[in-house]
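Sequence in, structure out. Go.
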Amino acid sequence: MDSFTELLKKEHRGELILVILMIIYLIMGLKTPDLIANLIDNLVGKIVIIIVVIYLFMHANPILAVLAALVAFYLMRNSYATGISALQSYAPTEKKKMSQFTAFNQFPYTLEQEVVAKMAPIVRSGSSLNPPSYKPLLDNLYDASPLNSSN
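Output:
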């Protein structure tokens, strides 16, 4: 009770305002903004928050320090929504994925590939081909105009 009456003194108005803001934040259950969540969702952000809470335990009112610890826990818990730390830890990089894909796509030369390579005629651009031995026939057009017609 002594720490509560000390918090109400005139020289501790800043701490009182901070306590009221923390209580409102905890009760309202506000979503952590993405900008702040991205700052907290890494090792440096979490260390900074823990240092601030330890500083408040050593130099501020105990009520403020306990509320700060609750708000810090709430912030850290809600900052996992961005998933940045999980992505950095568990998601594979493009280099790892490509090495796995190339390992999976190494197939031996099959009999089918060998037979097709022997059977397929090699046609190169610019080489002269013999004219075909067949002559195409045009079916009845049913009063339709040919494609190369100017009408």
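Check: The mean pLDDT is 79. Residues 3 and 63 are 7 Å apart (CA to CA).
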